[in-house]
User: Which sequence fits this backbone?
């Protein structure tokens, strides 16, 4: 996977946090991962992109970050991960991936198609995450830590 | 004034409702996909519709086409992650009146709602 694909997603994480969460975010480490198992404490949202490149984007929030993001987005005061919090994590990956796909756009190619987000807590059997090759970027933010994972292959 | 907010995300619907309040629209219905949006528009009169693009069952773009085919002239603002120029052109051709890309600030959306309502009045 071309690392050049990653920058639009990092920029989109910055845009999402500054525009909708009024929070700063700082990029930390970048690593390559041959599959992974989500930590039991993590809320993970995944979305597919399809077109001249195909792949999957994931955003992973520890539960505390997920609750803080939900509360900041909605003005609510949730204390636990419920369906509403899961929905907000799904919408987060939708916004980040959607914003990034426009930045990735090629003049001679139609826009990439964006899928519907899937959200899960902790490790789930049958999720492709374990077999895919990911680039993972970790971030620190005013709402807690988070990670972005991207796995892509370009059409030949 | 009454609005319809259409998005499969409950979180985004809550954000949209807050933007409507900033635009002084205090009454609204909600729909979670394009099919629900069409049913709501055919059975109610709205002053404005806020419409997502990517949703299960039926997309916002197809819903806009169906609402216009049914002769409904309600102002429709697309609120979507689809920000490529080609997508904006598709939505305007289908009958959308205005367009705002996610991520957005609620105040910016509120201003766009007011602008769209003013244009619809003239």
Assistant:
């Amino acid at each position: 996977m071309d690392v050049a694909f990653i920058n639009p997603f990092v920029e989109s994480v910055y845009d999402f946090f500054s525009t909708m969460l009024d929070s700063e975010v700082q990029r930390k480490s970048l690593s390559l991962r041959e599959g992974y198992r989500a930590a039991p404490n993590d809320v993970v949202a995944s979305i597919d992109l399809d077109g001249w490149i195909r792949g999957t984007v994931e955003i992973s929030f520890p539960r505390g970050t997920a609750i803080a993001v939900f509360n900041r987005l909605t003005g609510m005061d949730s204390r636990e991960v419920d369906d509403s919090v899961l929905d907000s994590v799904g919408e987060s990956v939708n916004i980040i991936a959607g914003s990034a796909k426009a930045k990735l756009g090629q003049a001679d190619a139609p826009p990439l198609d964006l899928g519907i987000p899937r959200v899960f807590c902790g490790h789930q059997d049958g999720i492709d995450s374990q077999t895919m090759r990911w680039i993972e970027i970790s971030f620190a933010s005013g709402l807690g830590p988070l990670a972005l994972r991207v796995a892509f292959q370009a059409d030949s | 004034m009454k609005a319809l907010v259409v998005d499969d995300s409950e979180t985004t619907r809550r954000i949209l409702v807050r933007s409507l309040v900033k635009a002084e629209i205090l009454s609204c219905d909600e729909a979670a996909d394009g099919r629900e949006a069409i049913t709501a528009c055919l059975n109610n009169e709205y002053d404005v519709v806020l419409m997502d693009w990517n949703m299960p069952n039926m997309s916002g773009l197809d819903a806009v086409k169906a609402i216009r085919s049914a002769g409904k002239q309600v102002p429709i603002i697309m609120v979507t992650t689809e920000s490529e120029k080609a997508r904006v052109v598709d939505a305007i051709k289908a009958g959308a009146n205005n367009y705002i890309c996610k991520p957005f600030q609620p105040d910016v959306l509120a201003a766009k709602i007011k602008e769209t309502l003013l244009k619809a009045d003239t």
Chain A has one domain: 3-151. Residues 42 and 60 of chain A are 6 Å apart (CA to CA).
